[in-house]
Automatic annotation (TrEMBL):
GO cellular component: monoatomic ion channel complex; plasma membrane
Compartment(s) of residence: Membrane
Lineage, uppermost ranks: Bacteria, Pseudomonadati, Pseudomonadota, Betaproteobacteria, Burkholderiales
GO BP: any one term: regulation of monoatomic ion transmembrane transport
Keywords: Ion channel, Ion transport, Membrane, Potassium, Potassium transport, Transmembrane, Transmembrane helix, Transport, Voltage-gated channel
Gene Ontology molecular function: inward rectifier potassium channel activity
Tree of life domain: Bacteria
Protein name stated in the entry: ATP-sensitive inward rectifier potassium channel 10
Length: 317
């Protein structure tokens, strides 16, 4: 019978989740600090989701028009040819004024009307400039499509227990001068009995590459110098261990810096398993096939299905 890949736990989200910082399966909530600062508006508008961004822009547009429509409506006669007491005429006039599209049937009729219209035109120019800048910044912000394997594995590699995980470039481009860093985070108790969170930088087989194009199998040998030496699955869980990985480099298309990160909790690290080989040995013409559908598949050590990835996948390219 062909062995089946073991069921894998859901990969945790990375970064902020509703005001909390996600690290592995742990969530950390900040308290005792200011939750809002006016200087953070620009940063916040760049990080909100696209639906929420357009919802906020639409709300700002609607509120601005309603406020100035009320200002026109409060003083009857400030708009020529507007129907007396008919609020929609004030709203449509406000929209025309905010957009600076010029006037047709209706126009400011009094000094008060001209003052309100001038104020709205100025505010409209500021809002259009701000929203245009935010749209450009959101669209031009460099992003990467680097995928990480759902789990990490610990398996013998060249006779040494090795921590492995996969990264892949989903775009048909190159990431130049790519570098990877991996850190282990766990709780430790000091001699004084204080629980302390420690960060350990893991030594990797290869931390830099001139070109990251397809896949990268990230390797960390577990020897006497490794913080994982002698650890079991139970040890990792009891210590609240989290593996954090980050890849950065220069996108050759955008010519700008990009990065990606992922974390793995203890239950996302499988002992005695290896990744399926995703690079086909068979040639289709002069082309070898890289099967991303098996990117996350792992198998128990000793099974013939999904042998250890070849040397071509141990390095980026």
């Amino acid at each position: 019978m062909t062995p089946q890949p073991p069921q894998q736990p859901i990969r945790p989200r990375v970064g902020q989740v509703r005001g909390e910082f996600q690290l592995g399966t742990s969530r950390i909530k900040r308290v005792g600090v200011s939750r809002w600062h006016w200087g953070d508006i620009y940063h916040w508008m760049l990080t909100v989701s696209w639906p929420r961004f357009f919802l906020l822009v639409g709300a700002l547009y609607l509120i601005t028009n309603l406020v100035f429509a009320l200002a026109f409506y409060a003083v009857p006669g400030s708009i020529s040819n507007a129907r007396p007491g008919y609020f929609p005429d004030c709203v449509f006039f406000s929209i025309e004024t905010l957009a600076t599209v010029g006037y047709g049937y209706m126009n400011p009729a009094t000094t008060y009307g001209h003052i309100v219209a001038s104020t709205e035109i100025l505010l409209g120019m500021v809002e259009v400039a701000a929203v245009t800048g935010l749209l450009f910044a959101r669209f031009s912000r460099p992003t990467s499509r680097i995928m990480f394997s759902n789990v990490a594995v610990i398996t013998p590699f060249n006779g040494v227990p090795t921590l492995m995980l996969r990264a892949g470039n989903e775009r048909a481009n190159l990431i130049l001068e790519a570098s990877v860093r991996a850190s282990l985070v766990r709780r430790e108790t000091t001699l004084e009995g204080q629980v302390f969170t420690r960060f350990y930088d893991l030594t990797l087989e290869r931390e830099n590459s001139g070109v990251f194009a397809l896949t990268w199998t990230i390797l960390h040998k577990i020897d006497e110098t490794s913080p994982l030496f002698g650890k079991t699955q139970h040890d990792l869980q009891s210590e609240g261990t989290t593996l954090a990985v980050a890849i950065s480099g220069t996108d050759d298309t955008l010519n700008d810096f990009v990065h990606a990160r992922q974390t793995y909790a203890a239950e996302h690290i499988f002992f005695g398993h290896h990744f399926a080989d995703i690079l086909s040995d068979k040639m289709e013409g002069n082309v070898r096939v890289l099967d991303y559908s098996k990117f996350h598949d792992i198998y128990p050590d000793g099974s013939r299905e999904g042998s250890m990835p070849g040397a071509a996948l141990a390095h980026p390219g």
